[in-house]
Design a protein that fits this description.
Number of strands: 12
Subcellular location: Cytoplasm
Organism: Paenibacillus alba
Strand order of the largest sheet: 2-1-3-4-5
Modified residues (4-aspartylphosphate): 55
Shape: globular
Keywords: Cytoplasm, DNA-binding, Phosphoprotein, Transcription, Transcription regulation, Two-component regulatory system
Low-confidence stretches: 128-137, 187-193
Helix content: 40-55%
InterPro entries: CheY-like_superfamily, Homeodomain-like_sf, HptR, HTH_AraC, HTH_AraC-typ_CS, Sig_transdc_resp-reg_receiver
Oligomer: single chain
Distance between the termini: 60 Å
Amino acid sequence: MYKVIIVDDEKLLRQGFIHMTDWTQSGFEIVGDAANGVEALALVESLHPDIVVTDIRMPVMDGIELTRILKQSYPNIQVIVLSSYNDFDYVKDTLQLGALDYILKPKMQYTDLVNAMDKAKLTNLQQSPPISPNKPSQSMLSFLKSLLAQPIECSVALQNKLDDFNISLQSSHLRLILVQIEYEEGDSILDDSPVNQISQTIVDDLQSKFRGGENGCCFAVNPEQVLILHNHSDPENLEWMTTILTSYEVQYWLCVSEIFSGFEEIHSVYQQLLAISNFRFYMPSGAFLQGSDYRERSTRLDLQFKLLNDFIDKQNFQGLYAHIDAVVQESMLQQRYVDPYAMRNGFIEVLYYVIHRLDEKAFDIEVLHKQKLAFFKNIENSRHLDECLAMSHHILMEIENQLKHKRNAQISPTIQAILDYIQQNFSEDISLQSIAHQFHLNKSYLSQLFKVQTGENFNNYLANLRINEAKAMLRESNPNIYTVCQAIGYPNPSYFGQVFKKIVGMKPSEYSKLYHK
């Protein structure tokens, strides 16, 4: 009988798969199901399946990352991918990582599943038999990992097992620490790779703490996660861990549980740490993450899309980014942390909305439509907030450049000369009247021509140009507001503040504080 695990964030789909037929008649047993890649890996450790059927798009850990880890750490497990029509680029990624086959969800039939699983069965027969997890050299590791996969009901039997392995640990005053490690993108985590050797060396170094009489143990769940389970002693004495970890050229985060009692709680505490670990998205390497810091969680980025219309219609994408960045920074200051998966999706929704709005306004964005899936994938793959913001800014600037290129192709030499003049003299006391006089044009005619060829009137264009320059000055240093307004052509600080708030949505001082906290 071949053991199968189903992985999909839609519970109804998992149940439908399980009850689709009597799988035992075809030689298969559905031994478990999971809502994401992290849950699936825990089941893999305890159930040792032959086949994993997984969706691609899931929160916490998607099907691409799950496939990568499975094929590198458990090469004998066959992976079958479920996808929609729009996921084919992702399907190619999973196939390149070693997935055996894929099935389209919209047309999924029982026969398609059986054929794919029979193919997996045949592939397994052609491969070498899997390494037994019960080999003496791995028995302790398998036992420790089993504590994470499901609750343990018999504490007495577990204590006896710990004694058999010479692990000094009591069931009261326990603490679990998850060391989440990140390597450079593209690093291999195969068993004999340098990355995997690093994680094993880290375990050896950390384990030395418990050879000197301390109660506890340390082991690697996988090359990117090391767990420390110990009896709580000094709540502040965790510096020994950072001393060891900083000696390695890796990024790491320490997810620290509260004190708990009872071995049966290890499973649920581990699940809590996995959830907390996702919030390293917001924190620098070396940070400590505790559940009490992330109690105010949100499942959605709080953006009011109607407020974005003015930025989009004026093609002020720098201002649009500043608005989004301000919303994110305010949420961070208030310690209202958005789930990282939802944060990435929030940025993607904004970009979808921008493209939709430009389509409504009949802008020619054919090139943008060809690039958008690659843009969105880059955001989905971003591992940290700074990376996500930088990618979103890059995409908005790419949109602006494409529209500017289209616009410039239609601008007359006269208007282009005027734009160049404004760019060079915006800090001076210039106006539509002075520009008309400078270029020997009628003021009314210039006003109409400027609006037709640039898409906005002269005063708005000049104000946006000046405020963008002001924002650059406020970001790069922490100057006096009076100095800034003088440098961009606004002699009256009060008027400058009004214009800045109207365009950016906040006062100049508030904007400056975002970058100089």
